[in-house]
Structures are given as structure tokens and as C-alpha cells.
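G., the chain you wanted modeled:
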Amino acid sequence: MNSLPKRSTRLECEALEDRVTPATLTWLGAVDGLWSQPGNWSTTDATHPVPQAGDALVFPAIAGNLTQTDDLAALTLSTITFQGGSGYQISDNNGITLTGGIGPTGIPTAGIALEGDATNDSIGIAIFDISAHGGQIQPSSLASSHLTISQLIVNGPSSSLASFDIFPEPFVSAPQVSTVSIGSMQVNGGSIYIELDDATLDVLPSGVLQLPHSAQLNLANNGHVVVERGAVFNDFGPTTIGSQSDMYVAGTVMVGPGAGTGQSGQVKVSEGLLFVEPTGQLYLAGTLQVGDNRVFPETGAITKLGGELYTAGLVVVESGSTLYIEHQTASCVVAPGGQLYDIGLLITVDSGQFYAYGLTQIIGLGAAGLYVYDGILNVQPGGALYAYGLVAIEPNTAFYDYGLFALEPSGYLYDAGLFVVEPGGVFYDFGPFVAPGGTYYNFGQQIGWGP
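Predicted structure as C-alpha cells:
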């Protein structure tokens, strides 16, 4: 019986893919202010003597060389943590990209965390990539937080599901004042949420905040946006000013379509305040709604939410645009020295209130103009309303003139409700005035034709 020949087995080694484990590096600043100097860092991984892709950086309360330069090419990190009390100033030419991960504070996101005592730190260019993780800037829960970013870029998917939060709200005790000041901000998709008591996004002079159609801006729980004098906010996406929140405009806000998009911007003031300062300018080429309906899906109940647009500066409602003032607690106030030019459509509905202490001009084209449904139009002493287009006072609606109302030859007044020229009020009537079923009382001065 012949034995079978023995078979030899050759063992081979298969090369596995290289895996890089992110490290956490803590700034020492023992040598100079350059990030490329290993002597400036302590690290959890000896193979990462200086920051590499995916690493997390910590800047402690006590360290040397607080003024630094990121001289590493196109650095990508997970998180950055400032531990307070120092005042770091970080400049960079290529920008720092934050892509997400679990940082030293346990944040499962791309983020900048401000910890410990009061912080006052600055970064040159910060790029948040929120395509895989949400992004956030988290304040200290112990003291006020101040962070300045020269250029902030948020890159997200076209879907608004991914979010970038400024001061999210997981804290028991909130700081009294927390501010992110930016020179410029470009949002490329995703949603922006500004939350937490007394949190402020401050657009610095000469800065630009750009919000495209694919992005959203939401202010809630005492969130604030300040557009400083000389700054510009290009708002082409949905914006909501929510509960006890506000936007102060001392610069310029452009609400409307981006170039070639064919879409209009939308701003909703829901329980909040949109305040245009004396130096501010608000150009509406989309839709601005003051007041809102909140529907509870469990019961179908509807709660009416108020809001306020207050202008001591300039508000222009462009042709084809609409300004809605809804509910009894919703109002539009043109303050003394303020100006509102209505070239599009301005509507007050459901008991909304419009007060003119300054100059209001209705220049509506065609059927556009000022329509008041179930609301109040009030020209206060010293205020002026010039109608070069249509002013329609619908049934169950009141128009009180304590100041100056001028119906120009090109204008048209339709009164199906109540129109009262109060004592001290002046009504210049040089255009068509019809009152089908409406009531007109004149206790002041009327110059012109009459109804």
C-alpha cells in the first residue's frame, strides 16, 4: 500500500489596513507659539507629538504662549476645549476643520467647548463639518463665555436634519452672558440653533453672515443675534426668532432669494423680537411673519404666539414680498425716526397691530399694498402714513389716525371697517376713497375730497 505524499502548507502574512488612533493633546506652550513644535504639547500618544487628523486639543487654564499660530497644513480635528481663565489667541492661514468624535468633555460631536472660569478666547478660521455629526459651541456652566471667530464656516448636508448648535442646553445652571463674536459666517447646509439663556451670536462690524436656502437659523430660550453697524446678514433660508429671543440689527439684513435660486427667504418672529436700530436696514425680498400658530399634534389644539417687529431704522418690503402681522399679541411698530417702505404686500391679520410713530409709505404696485384684516392700524401723533398704493380696511378692522395720513393721487383707500381721524389727526385726501359698508368719523382735520 503506497502512502500518500505529504503536502506542505505555506503560511502567509496578510497586510492589514493602517489604523490611526486619535490622540488628545494638551497645550503647554513651553517653547513658543507654534503648533508644529512638539515641545509645546503633552500627548496621550507618542506617535502624535503634534496635532494630527482626528485629534482632540485641550487648552488649559494655565499655560505659556497664549498667542499662537496654527502652522500645520489643513488641520482636521474632532474637538477643541478651552478650560478658561487664559485668553488664547489662535491664528491660522488654512483654517481648522472640526469633523466630530468624542472629545475630552464627552461631546459626541464636532465642537468647541468652553469650560471652567470665565473664558475670552479667539480663533482665526473655524470650519465645522456636520455631515456626519452635529456641530456645537458649548459654553462653561460655571461662568460667562466669550469666543471670537474671525471666519466661521459650517458645511452640512442639503437636508436640515444636521444641526450646528451655539450654546446647546444640557446645563442645570446657565451662564449669565455668553457670546460668540464672528467676523464672517458662511453656512452651507444644515440648521443653526442658538439656545440657552443669554447666549448671543454677534456679527462684528464689516462682518458677513451668510445663510443659504438649504440652511435654517433658529433662536430659542433667550437666544440673541446682534448684527453690528457695518455688518451684513444675508438671510436666504428659514429663520425663526422664538421664545424670549431677539435679533438686533444695527447693520444690514437682506431677506430674500440668492442669485439665480428663484426661492425666497423666510423669517418668522414667534414670541420674539426683531429690532431694527436707528442705523439698521432690513430689506425684505421674501416673507416676514410676525406671530405664529403652534399646533399640538396630540390634541390638535392651536396656541397663538405673538411677536414684535420694532424699527427705529429702515425697513423696505420689496416688490413681490409680504410682511404678515398675526394675532392680537403680534405687532409692527415704526418708531419715531423709523421708516417703513412697503412696495410689496403688507398684511395684518387676526387682530394684529400696526403702529406708525415714524414714516410709513405704502407704494404697493398693482394689487399690492396694505391690507388690514381683523386688526388695528394706528398712526400715532407725530407719525405719518403716505399711501401711494392701496390701503384696504376690511370688515372688523379699525384704522385710527392721530398723526398724518396722506392719500396721494396714485393711492386708493378702501374702507369696509372703521376709519377714524382722531382729534389732532390730519387726513390729506387726494386719491380715491370708497367706503362700502364701512364707517368714517372725522374729529380732526380733513383736506381734500372726502368719501
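The chain has two domains: 21-235, 251-451.

Shout if anything looks off.
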